Amino acid sequence: MSTLLLIGLQWGDEGKGKIVDAIAEESDVVMRYQGGANSGHTLKQKDETIVLHHLPSGIFHPTVANVMSWGMVLSPKVLIEELDTVERIVGRKIGPEHLAISGHTSIVLPLHCRLEERRESRRKIGTTRRGIGPAYEDRIGRCAVRVADVMALSEKALKARLEALYEDHDLEISADQRELNEEIAETVRVCKSFVDRIAPYVTRVSRLMATAVREHKKILFEGAQGAMLDVQQGTYPYVTGSMTGHAGVHAAMGIYLPIDARVGVAKVYCTRVGEGPFPSELKNEVGEKIQTDGHEFGATTGRKRRVGWLDLVQLRYSILANGITDVILTKADVLSGYKDIGVVRAYTTDGAELEWLEGGFEMTEEMKPVVQMMPCWKQVTDAQGKISPELEEFCVLIEKYTGARVSVISYGPKRKDVIFRGRKSFQDFYQ
Ligand code: IMP
What average pLDDT does the chain have? Predict the structure, then answer.
């Protein structure tokens, strides 16, 4: 196995940061293939907690080549801040041998944030308000401003390009023209200084990846958000603007990238931020307790996350949609000591029981969960380090229901807080 896909199997925030960091250490290349400043991978480095929004999680490992592919959208100020933070922590400049950015990535503009504000005020999706959706829309609309465009255009030409773009969207933005002119002038300045800063990293990433694949390098495809937020397969229209699942990898490059191993991360319960259906949601004290015990606040926006029981129908769907063979369960410690816990085995809708989702879009607000209660584990392991019988039963239930194996259980923020179950180590995923 040389290439490995790692994605979240729920609605994001599954605790991927720590896992991706551990697997990144075993990798030669880490590639981000979608998303932008809406995501947040929380990592601990030298006692500091850092949230990476754009940079691949291998950025702290000196031997890893990090790649940001076509599928991403970049927010200039956020990415520069991230680069500065990483360079401060590692105490050296990040060189082009450690970071490659595709010139074909799109830039998120202040215009996109404007458009998003307006849409959210009319039809709420509960987005992160980072302009991500409108930036992807412009890509599909064939009018995105890409990094390579900013590099190639003079300031004057870029200004004209932006003016035309604002005009294209004129039906949706209602602002004073003088304010818009100032915004365009500022956008030209920001975009130009942004591309100056990232110029050493901008390269032809397809060629780089083709070489890495040919040389059987260990390549990690790092997903952001989660499978249920995928624009095609998720709970449409309450989704993000990109393909968060396996298809995003294939769409993100000028060459076919094989995926040898497919690993998904899921919490032992579910969370979701923003609007949209969430059949297993606990709108009661139990939900509030899990929210508090699990510190369930968004890494990017600080919003309180909605909480629900583990949803087996949803989990099976994400696993099948992405060909996942291995599940890494996270936050097992959060539920330790609860008397009992629930899992959702089906939904009822219009008097009928539904155990199977055709696509995420089938999930509706009206669906009621069919919950099975089971005794919870007192602690994750016994004194000998063996997985407690209740947690083992929980894993077996997931395996029976989904067909994937539970290979790792994570039970705390530290790297060592993991139990390997179906696998011997993180390195084993590449075997
Ligand atoms: P957008 O990606 O900002 O357009 O937001 C669309 C939906 O995806 C909203 O429900 C957001 O809360 C959700 N979302 C986007 N990024 C993340 C993430 O990294 N974690 C969890 N939810 C996210």
Answer: 95
What whole-number distance in Å separates Cα of residue 354 and Cα of residue 123? 28
Q: What are phi and psi of 71, to 5 degrees?
A: -70, -5
CB 341 within 8 A of CB 309: yes
Model pTM?
Answer: 0.96
Catalytic residue at 295? no
Residue nearest to atom 2 of ligand 1 (CA): 240
**Whether 54 is catalytic:** no
Q: What is the mean pLDDT of residues 225-241?
A: 97
For range 15-24, the mean pLDDT: 93
> Best mutation site among 273, 301, 303 for ligand 1, i.e. most ligand atoms within 8 A of its Cβ?
273
User: Among 128, 379, 360, which residue's Cα sits nearest to residue 240?
Assistant: 128
Q: Residue 8: beta bridge partners?
A: 265
